[in-house]
Each structure stands twice: as structure tokens, then as C-alpha cells.
């Protein structure tokens, strides 16, 4: 079967979509038919320019920044098209070519900004678009975009919802997201993590407890909440170190806030680190905190650190709660006092921390695996191809 995977963003760009698409394409390329031949002939199409990565080393073809005519030809030559995200051109050309189309969803069919996050209040969106409260929807969008751009995004949200009625399968990575999208022919296929060895022991907390955040420093990630929790912990004369790993447009203002609150000795901004350095830093973590305020459809950081066997404290966003299950702590979105309480409970109860760590690792190993993700997609493609 010829499969075209379209992802607007791909390596060397870094992000959740890029990670999932690469894992999916690699996994599908390894699938063999009973006769030993590849089950899928994969072409990955992207608008991301090549970097130092060598596409020739990948087990599938990569086409970067195709012309419109080249994209149409590639679509005509394939059997099934998978569009990862809200890219309109491959979506429309595939429908016009009468090709089975699979679309992998974020929030773009229910939120013009694609974040489900209300600005400038910086709170989870009360779903203005789906409620028909379009004036509030566009005011929110104008907090981040110009008036013309916000109107265009708002209008495109209607177009995307209409077109999705004709998609063969709409895929959501969480049942929670599927319930929000309310699209026809929607199926849930969770993202997966690579295999990991069994967890035989937990490092535990030695010395000063370390609380770690890993992610982009943007308002949706809720890093200010971490600083507010650090301020409360300091007022309680708690001994701790808060490691903030990542970079982004909010770093300067967050560092200034930490300094103004006299948290410089407790909070360390590490910037963006190589993966090996992140791994070493996490080896001594007492807890990983994921305090996002919105914009999350799955929770890759949650799943990755569950697999590492680390205690997780996450905001109670629907996606996080679904991924984490009962293997970690959640706190009310945007509530720094509740976050502080959950941090204290993890740090003060080593036995509970270890139970969470083992249970989280086991949950990912059993339920949220790359193998299950690839199997779920393969079954959809083959069903559509044989129809």
C-alpha cells in the first residue's frame, strides 16, 4: 500500500507532532507482509526545510517543500493520505482526488488559535467557538493576532469543520479530545512511547529535593505557577531546588519574576539542554511538574516521564488526566496553592512517590506504547484501502 504522510512540521523542527510522525513513519516502514515485503510504501511530505539531518538515512522517502503541482501528483499516486494537523492544501487536494483521507487532530476545528486557551486572561478557553459565542472567540484570537489574521483563522475553523465531514477517519490521540471535537467517524489512537526496560528500582530523593519542569517557556505551559508554588514553599522554609529546563519567549520575564521574588537560590533556569543532560538532571528529580494551562491534546511530557519512572504532578487538563490515570497527582488548573499541596504530598511521602513511579512506568509500558500506536494506525489504513 502506498501511504502519504503529510506533516507541515518535521525534523529538524522539534515538537510533539514531529516526534509522533517520525515514530509512526519509522514503525510503519518496518511492517512486513506475510511474504516478507514491506506492507507500506511511505512518502512523508513536509513544508519544513532540510537541516543537517540526512533524509537518505530514513527508511522512507521524504519530500520537502513541494510545489502545488508536485503535491497534487504525489496525492494522485498514493492509496491513502494521512494529514497530521490542520494543513488545508493536502486535505483539499486529497478530497478532490477521491483519496481516503485520515486527519490527525488538535484543536484547530474547535478553536481558531488552535490552543483552546483564552487570552489575555491566560485561562482555559470556555469553548466559545462551539458555543456560538463568536465575538468572544475573535476577541481572544486578536490578543495574539491582528484583526485580519484573527478573522481569517476564525473563518477557517468553519471551513475545517465542514471539510472534516468528508474525511474517512478523524483521529484523536485522547478520548477527551474526541469528545470535544464532536466530529463524524472519529476514532481514538493514543500516542505511544518507545519500549523501555522494566523498572527495577526508583532512585528516590537524596539531599535537597529537586522539582523539574521540561518544556517551552510560553504562557500556555504555566511556568509562572511553578514560581508561585516556589514562593509558597520558600515561605514555609522548605528546602528544595526547582529546575526549569527549556527556552522560549517568556524566559526573560520569568527570570525577572524569580529575581523579584528572591527565588534565585531555589529556582534555576537551565535553558535548552541536550537530551543526555536532561536525562541526567531527571535522574535526581523528586517530581516532574507539568502545569500547563491549555493547548494540550495528549501530554507527551507526561508520558515520557511516566516511562522514566518519575512521580508526575500535572494540571487536571482532560488529556493529562487521561494519560496519567491514577498513577500520579493532579492539581486544579491555574491553582498554585493546590499545586504546592501536591508537591508537598509527593516530597513528604517517599512510599507514595515510589508507588506512583512504578505504576506510571507500568501504565505506559502496557497501554501507551509505540507498537499499539502503529498497530492502531495500520489497521485504519488497511481498512480504508480494502474498502
Structure in a nutshell:
The chain has 387 residues and is an alpha/beta fold. It contains 15 helices and 15 strands. Strand 11, helix 9 and strand 12 (267-271) form a beta-alpha-beta unit.
- SSE topology string: EHEEHEHEEEHHHEHEEHEHEHEHEHEHHH
Total number of β-strand segments? Answer: 15
Shape: globular
The average pLDDT score comes to 93
CATH class bucket of the largest domain: Alpha Beta
The SS-based structural class is alpha/beta
**Poorly predicted regions:** none
Predict the CATH topology of the largest domain: Rossmann fold
Fourth CATH level, the homologous superfamily of the largest domain: Glycogen Phosphorylase B
Amino acid at each position: 500500500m502506498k501511504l502519504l504522510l503529510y506533516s507541515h512540521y518535521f525534523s529538524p523542527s522539534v515538537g510533539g507532532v514531529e516526534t509522533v510522525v517520525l515514530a509512526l513513519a519509522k514503525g510503519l516502514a518496518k511492517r512486513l507482509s506475510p511474504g516478507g515485503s514491506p506492507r507500506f510504501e511511505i512518502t512523508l511530505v513536509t513544508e519544513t526545510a532540510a537541516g543537517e539531518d540526512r533524509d537518505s538515512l530514513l527508511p522512507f522517502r521524504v519530500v520537502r517543500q513541494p510545489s502545488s503541482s508536485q503535491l497534487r501528483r504525489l496525492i494522485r499516486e498514493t492509496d491513502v493520505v494521512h494529514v497530521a494537523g490542520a494543513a488545508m492544501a493536502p486535505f483539499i487536494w486529497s478530497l478532490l482526488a477521491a483519496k481516503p483521507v485520515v486527519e490527525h487532530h488538535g484543536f484547530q476545528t474547535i478553536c481558531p488559535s488552535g490552543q483552546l486557551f483564552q487570552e489575555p486572561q491566560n485561562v482555559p478557553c470556555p469553548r466559545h467557538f462551539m458555543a456560538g459565542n463568536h465575538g468572544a472567540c475573535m476577541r481572544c484570537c486578536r490578543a495574539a493576532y491582528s484583526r485580519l489574521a484573527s478573522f481569517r483563522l476564525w473563518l477557517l475553523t468553519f471551513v475545517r469543520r465542514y471539510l472534516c465531514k468528508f474525511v474517512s477517519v478523524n483521529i484523536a490521540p485522547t478520548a477527551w479530545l474526541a469528545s470535544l471535537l464532536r466530529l463524524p467517524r472519529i476514532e481514538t489512537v493514543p500516542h505511544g512511547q518507545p519500549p523501555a526496560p522494566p523498572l527495577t528500582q526508583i532512585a528516590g530523593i537524596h539531599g535537597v529535593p529537586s522539582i523539574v519542569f521540561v518544556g517551552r517557556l510560553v504562557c500556555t505551559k504555566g511556568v509562572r505557577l511553578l514560581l508561585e508554588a516556589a514562593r509558597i514553599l520558600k515561605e514555609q522554609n522548605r528546602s528544595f531546588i526547582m529546575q526549569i529546563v527549556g527556552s522560549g519567549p517568556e524566559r526573560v520575564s520569568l527570570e525577572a519574576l524569580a529575581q523579584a521574588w528572591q527565588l534565585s537560590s531555589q529556582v534555576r533556569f537551565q535553558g535548552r539542554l541536550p537530551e543526555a543532560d536532561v536525562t541526567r538532571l531527571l535522574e535526581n528529580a523528586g517530581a516532574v511538574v507539568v502545569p500547563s494551562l491549555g493547548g494540550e491534546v495528549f501530554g507527551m511530557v507526561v508520558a515520557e516521564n511516566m516511562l522514566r519512572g518519575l512521580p508526575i504532578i500535572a494540571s487536571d487538563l482532560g488529556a493529562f488526566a487521561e494519560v496519567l490515570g491514577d498513577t500520579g497527582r493532579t492539581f486544579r488548573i491555574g491553582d498554585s496553592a493546590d499545586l504546592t499541596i501536591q508537591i508537598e504530598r509527593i516530597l513528604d511521602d517517599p512510599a507514595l512517590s515510589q508507588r506512583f513511579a512504578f505504576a506510571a512506568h507500568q501504565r505506559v509500558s502496557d497501554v501507551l506504547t509505540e507498537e499499539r500506536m502503529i498497530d492502531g494506525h495500520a489497521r485504519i489504513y488497511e481498512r480504508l484501502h480494502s474498502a
